[in-house]
From TrEMBL:
GO terms, molecular function: guanyl-nucleotide exchange factor activity
Record protein name field: PH domain-containing protein
Cellular component GO terms, alphabetical: cytoplasm
UniProt cross-references to Gene3D superfamilies, sorted A to Z: Pleckstrin-homology domain (PH domain)/Phosphotyrosine-binding domain (PTB)
TM annotation in the entry: none
Ranges where the record places region Disordered: 88-123
Record field: compositional bias (Polar residues): 107-123
Length: 256
């Protein structure tokens, strides 16, 4: 598989350029990392999918881990700012902007894994800040479900949760990735196989080409252990995305 890392997404696909078959799109705001020290692989955990990524070298692994941590924290910061605007969260709980998320250079690591192997992040930025990881609360409220894009907790009708594969009340099943998202996160309608279907904003951006321009991380010509980043901006999408087409890794199924 070939992995593509953006500032808000990880996409892995099979095939060769220019034709790829996308297998999964993961949202970094929901992800976390778990390391296997002394190896060339680590776990990428997400409610959407959890799998192991194995790298050709320790240097490439470190470069990816450093950038993944930076992007995950960045997305959680954005969700925090969005939550303040929507729900009026107490500004006193704001994550510290003076604390660096990651200052790791190639071959070094400042965000060390904990005793359980999981990388430390600013606790004020975790999804528990939005009361999402309170699984006991979600289990007690059988009508609650979480949108995978905006991480908001929603409640369905009094008849409880829908059957597997069905969209709950207030939810939309994306016609492309089949994920369940809220209506706010599925604002686009596209024609798929001759029929109109609601799609999540993430898939809409991919299909409309908003993710075509990106930055490329590639091996340095002079030193294969050093990775260099070239930056590019997508004016149509309005966001900065980073792409790592040369990091071909083995994807293995794993459980949470």
């Amino acid at each position: 598989y070939t992995f593509f890392l953006f500032n808000d997404l990880v996409i892995y696909a099979a095939g060769q350029p220019p034709s790829y078959k996308v297998h999964q799109t993961l949202h970094l705001s929901l992800a976390r990392l778990r390391d296997f020290p002394g190896t060339r692989h680590h776990l990428l955990l997400s409610p959407q999918k959890t799998f192991t990524i194995e790298y050709p070298s320790h240097q490439m692994k470190q470069a990816w881990v450093t950038q993944l941590i930076r992007n995950i924290e960045g997305q959680r910061q954005l969700h925090y700012k969005h939550a303040i605007g929507v729900k009026g969260i107490d500004h006193d709980k704001s994550p510290s902007s003076s604390k660096p998320v990651s200052e790791a250079a190639a071959g070094t690591q400042t965000n060390a894994p904990t005793s359980s192997g999981e990388y430390e992040t600013d606790p004020s930025l975790t999804s528990s800040f939005f009361n999402v990881e309170n699984t006991k609360k979600l289990e007690e409220d059988q009508r609650a479900w979480v949108c995978k894009l905006c991480i908001r907790v929603h409640s369905t009708s009094r008849w409880g949760r829908p059957k597997p594969g069905q969209a709950p009340a207030g939810g939309v099943k994306c016609g492309v990735c089949k994920d369940i998202v809220c209506r706010r996160c599925a604002s686009q309608t596209l024609v798929i196989k001759g029929e109109k279907a609601k799609v999540c904003d993430c898939c809409s951006g991919v299909l409309k080409g908003y993710l075509s321009n990106s930055a490329v991380m590639e091996r340095s010509v002079n030193d294969n252990s050093i990775l260099s980043i070239r930056s590019d901006w997508s004016a149509s999408a309005g966001t900065h995305r980073q792409k790592f087409p040369k990091a071909e890794s083995e994807s293995k199924a794993a459980t949470m």
